[in-house]
Amino acid sequence: MLHGRTARGWLACALLAAGAKPAAAQHMLALPRVSAPLPALSLPASPVSWAAAMSAPLLALPAPLLSPILGPSAAPVLTQALAPVAPAAPSAEPLVRKAGASESFTAQVQAQLRAAVPAGAIADILAHGYIILVKDHLTQDRPDLSADLDYTGGLNDWGPLGNFIMVAERIRSVKTLDWMESQVWRNAVVHECGHAVDHVLKATDSSEIREAWAHDLAAMPEAAKAESSPDGRKNPFYYFVRPGPDGSFDRARQETWAEGFDILMRGEASSFNYANFQAHFPRTLAAMRGLLEARYGRLGA
Ligand SMILES: [Zn+2]
To answer: What is the count of structural domains for the chain?
Structure first.
């Protein structure tokens, strides 16, 4: 789930959970806000040649097919330069700020971050001023946010109020409107970190990701790209290929990146979209792996 003061057209990727949970405590943990500048980026040789190799098959596609997918800003995009970052030393510092969630859920989120997100990525996120809030529900203390967000378990929000990754302990059922313990928080933690990494590195603006994503979209079967199936059922995968109100695929590409981030970090444990992404976003996943491993080292999953 992506949100931002400049891009309010978020889409609900609501996922159902089960079980109810009483309202949680309201304590806050102090988290030092890191505002160190990012290291200067340079242009390593290998991703450039790799990007050229990835681009070659695209050139075989008819231009009229590609132009609406890539958009007008795609052609001159410079290869994303990603300098490797040294892995951060293990730290006992809390990565998260408890903001309404229970003590035990907050500890679980913290453990998930350390286990599933590379230390260098966490360092990038914190250095960009992000605060990771573990909340009872997403709109808690934020009346400016749409109540519909409480159907979802995670949010990446940036703007005048600050940069936030939010993870909710409870979400509302789309069907019954009841409050339930979120069953999607593991995905939410890593997916929202993916959005933050994208926000920091501008990865989905890079030619590597634009071209790989466009190639995957062009190769995708029509049924995968349809909003609903012939029998009228919604296609959840449409979230990742849906054009925005401006006709661009920027939002779809950003959501693909964030979900792909979770899939690359957790493998099949990222079960909601693992099979669909392996089938329909192979180039995008490979391009993401190339960019992420150039910066953060070898990925686990
Ligand atoms: Zn998202």
So the answer is: 2
Token pair for residue 256? Answer: 């693909």
Domain termination site, one of 168, 200, 232: 200
Q: Are residues 190 and 234 in the same domain?
A: no
Same domain, 238 and 298: yes
Supply 169's token pair: 């302990």
Distance 10 CA to ligand 1 centre (A): 8
Residues 249 and 177 in one domain: no
Whether the Cβ atoms of residue 240 and residue 256 lie closer than 8 Å to each other: yes
pLDDT tens, position by position, for the chain (301 residues)? 776 643 332 323 333 232 222 222 222 222 333 333 333 333 333 333 333 333 444 434 444 444 444 444 443 333 444 677 765 555 667 899 999 999 999 999 999 999 999 999 999 999 999 999 999 999 999 999 999 999 999 999 988 889 999 999 999 999 999 999 999 999 999 999 999 999 999 999 999 999 999 999 999 999 999 999 989 999 999 999 999 999 999 999 999 999 999 999 999 999 999 999 999 999 999 999 999 999 999 997 6
Q: What is the CATH number of the domain that holds 109?
A: 3.30.2010
> Token match 């808690």: residue?
140
Helix axes 207-219, 63-70, angle to 10 degrees: 120
Sort strands 154-157 and 163-168 into parallel, antiparallel or unpaired.
antiparallel
Question: What does each C-alpha distance from 150 to 96, 138, 187 come to in angstroms?
Answer: 20, 6, 16
Between the CA of 202 and the centroid of ligand 1 the distance, in Å, is 15
What is the 155 CA–ligand 1 centroid distance (Å)? 7
225 and 247 belong to one structural domain: yes
Residue-number span of the structural domain to which 146 is assigned: 96-200
Q: How far does the centroid of ligand 1 lie from the alpha carbon of residue 277, in Å?
A: 15
Residue 53 lies in a domain: no
Residues with CB under 5 A from ligand 1 (ion): 1-2, 255, 258
Ligand 1 midpoint to CA 45 (Å)? 31
Q: Full-prediction pTM beyond 0.70?
A: yes
